[in-house]
Amino acid sequence: MVASILTELELQQDFLKGAPLTSIYLGGGTPSLLDISELVQIFDRISELHKVQTDAEITLEANPDDLTPEKLRQIRDYTPVNRLSIGVQSFSDADLQWMNRAHNAVHARACLEDALKTGFSDLTIDLIYGAPPTSDAQWAQNLQTAFEYGIPHLSCYCLTIEEGTALHNQVGKGKQPPVDEERAARQFEYLQRETARTGYEHYELSNFALPGRHARHNSSYWLGEPYLGIGPAAHSFDGEGRQWNIANNTLYINLLKERIIPVERELLTPAQRYNEYVMTSIRTKWGVDERKIAADYGQFVALFLQGVQPYIKGGQIVVSDGIYTLSKTGKLLADRIASDLFVS
Fold first, then answer.
1. How many CB atoms lie within 10 A of CB 264?
2. Residue partners of 68: CB distance under 8 A and separation at least 6
3. Most buried residue, 2, 84, 147, 157, by most Cβ within 10 Å?
């Protein structure tokens, strides 16, 4: 797999047209399972093929049980990684067992303590709310624990039950309860209040950062900047179209042995590009800019202005100087609002 990733990096070298890299993110799987020599190979190849800005944000995604003190020291000493994204999910054993996670609450705390001791101050953690075993009191404790560690960036997601998953089947058979929408909304509202009280900025629907600690990688995606994804199932965007690699590992490896990029591509229509802009922007503090719609998707301005009116009147959308953002109540309905603003 590593050899295939190195080959794809070479074959995709020109995708970003020589633009310097401001962000590198190893994630979407569990790259912390790679040994240090494999991580070094990947970063060395990236540096050979691209200009990496000296202040680039370089993130490694990891599970708490993978980040031993020795692994952390190796990452610090031998790679350019300067930011860790750690899949904590919860500081409750009951939550973690229900989520079928390999780590426990002790692992989660120890991992954060070891990372901070090793010198990784730029941390982000994932937390899940709305899960059946996560009481309001436990959700409050999860957030308080994150605050106590001084974690500068939080990604907080509501539990979703995807069709075709084991959990979806269990809910369908009555073996697991469905998501309690009222409790999930209550925990999201508590999340907004407590992060604001503690000095975090709610800069995207699921993301919260202390001043100056926004995730550069995620922000680039939400702002519609081009990005290149490498590896099975990775997605890329060049401003005009998107492409995605096949997800099957064996096919991915076999095609790259033949130096064939295992990719499918779709050129976006004006309507699709408009919909993507609305979908990503409405979730952020930067909002939807009426002037950008007029400049880039002019034929849809009237439809947009018509679509937002009910939500402005209802208090779910706030408009200021042509910028449309979600209010606190609007954030509870973000997906529905975005869908209502789409064009076909």
1. 9
2. 114
3. 84
User: In the chain, which stretches have pLDDT less than 70?
Assistant: 168
Tell me the Cα Rg of the chain.
21
Per residue in 282-322, pLDDT tens? Answer: 999 999 999 999 999 999 999 999 999 999 999 999 999 99
- 179-197 as b/e: b if 16+ CB within 10 A: beeebbeebbeebbebbee
Task: Look at residues 166, 126, 110 and name the one whose alpha carbon lies nearest to residue 27.
Answer: 126
Domain boundary among 154, 189, 222: 222
Contacts of 17 (CB under 8 A, 6+ apart): none
Cα separation of 124 and 102, whole Å?
A: 19
Q: How many domains does the chain have?
A: 2
pLDDT tens profile 159-190: 987 777 777 677 777 778 877 899 999 999 99
3-state secondary structure of 283: coil
- CATH number where 308 lies: 1.10.10.920
| pTM for the predicted model, two decimal places | 0.92
| Residue 124: domain span | 20-222
